[in-house]
Design a protein that fits this description.
The chain is of the alpha+beta class. The chain is built from 11 helices and 13 strands.
């Protein structure tokens, strides 16, 4: 009887410890810090979700190395392109409520022709005047990154926005499509995009340290970034709401968001299924350069979802979204089989080099398409 009692107590302690369940033997904080030391990663935060519930949230290293300030689960970090998935989540809520038709063309969603809008650098669409293909754009096409645009117009030789292929023809990652989606929300639906994100996502899910624009209270616990050569880049104070990438957040808040996403909170079952359904096969060998249709062996089963990329894992369907700039590396990976997700935020872009190893530790053997996401993976350049 005593042995049975001790076993029950031990099981209770394990269940309350916050340690991740499932196929992750040997996963420990020591594993993470060793990987960070190998690549000189300054700071890394991660969360693990199992069966749709957050089971681990942790932070390692520094938010600022020069001032020896530790990174914590509530440290504000740059969300980068994870913003795109958060914005897609908000749009899918509107669609679930019947307020947004994902398949409606812009001619039905905007009160004026798209080229008539000249609302600042990111939302000036006058370059498209004379090209009627804008009429074929729909929210579904834009969420699947099939609008036909470069990632940013500034990458064009003349800096002008243009179509490179017919809308819906193929996948090509583009922030420009997100700007059009934001225009639909603000000009077509008459909503404040920042407020909708705050109310529908951040407040609803209990994400107190996340916002679509800079807040002065973020400054007290803020992570600065580090480039590939270890140079510190001060955190950018983004004052404008941008659907493509203005979100500041914490790992504690992102854990709540991705748990809600994998559960489908706030979405109809049909829209939750659409989010991760393969909408359009991805036939490129890599994500970047955005418009490159490099021949070669595309990843079997790789496809655009709505705000995420889907892939075929050995356990079933998987999906993911990354976020990146010169001093930021973020990644979220979810596996449908167990509603299991790994979310990683880093204020050091060198962390991307250890993301595959962390994913193996946290998720077990998986088929995340790292080579497509990071061109160096599996090559002679791989660390």
């Amino acid at each position: 009887m005593k042995t049975l009692f001790m076993a029950v107590v031990a099981l209770f302690l394990v269940s309350c410890s916050g340690a991740p369940r499932g196929p992750d033997p040997g996963f420990s904080d020591r594993d993470i810090t060793a990987l960070m030391a190998r690549e000189k990663v300054v700071g890394l935060a991660l969360a693990l979700i199992d069966e749709g519930q957050v089971v681990k949230v942790a932070a390692y290293g520094k938010r600022n190395l020069e001032r020896d300030l530790p990174l914590a689960p509530d440290t504000v970090m740059y969300g980068a392109s994870l913003t795109k998935t958060a914005f897609a989540y908000m749009l899918l809520q509107l669609a679930s409520e019947g307020r947004l038709d994902l398949d409606a063309p812009l001619t039905r969603l905007l009160p004026r022709p798209l080229p008539d809008y000249r609302l600042g650098e990111r939302r000036d669409f006058s370059d498209l005047a004379g090209d009627e293909r804008w009429r074929r754009l729909t929210p579904r096409i834009l969420l699947a990154h099939a609008g036909g645009f470069a990632n940013f117009r500034r990458l064009e030789p003349d800096g002008k926005l243009r179509f490179h292929f017919d809308p819906g023809a193929r996948y090509a990652y583009s922030a420009e499509g997100m700007y059009i989606l934001q225009l639909i929300v603000e000009q077509g639906l008459g909503l404040d995009a920042g407020r909708e994100m705050q109310v529908r996502v951040f407040d609803r899910l209990g994400m107190p340290n996340t916002g679509m624009r800079w807040r002065s209270d973020f400054a007290a616990n803020l992570a600065d970034g580090y480039t590939m050569d270890g140079k510190m880049e001060p955190h950018d104070q983004r004052s404008a709401v941008t659907a493509a990438g203005s979100m500041d957040t914490t790992i504690a808040d992102q854990a709540r968001m991705w748990a809600a996403l994998v559960r489908g909170d706030g979405l109809s079952p049909a829209l939750r299924a659409e989010m991760v359904r393969p909408q359009l096969p991805i036939l490129s060998a890599g994500q970047f350069p955005t418009l490159a249709s490099r021949p070669g062996a595309p990843v079997p089963g790789l496809a655009a979802g709505l705000g995420v990329v889907t892939f075929q894992d050995r356990s079933g369907r998987g999906w993911f979204k990354g976020g990146h700039n010169d001093s930021t590396g973020n990644m979220a990976i979810c596996l449908e089989a167990r509603r299991r997700c790994l979310v990683m935020l880093s204020n050091d872009v060198r962390a991307e080099r250890i993301f595959p190893a962390i994913a193996r530790l946290a998720l077990g053997r998986n088929d995340m398409p790292w080579r497509w996401e990071y061109g160096w993976y599996g090559s002679a350049l791989q660390p």
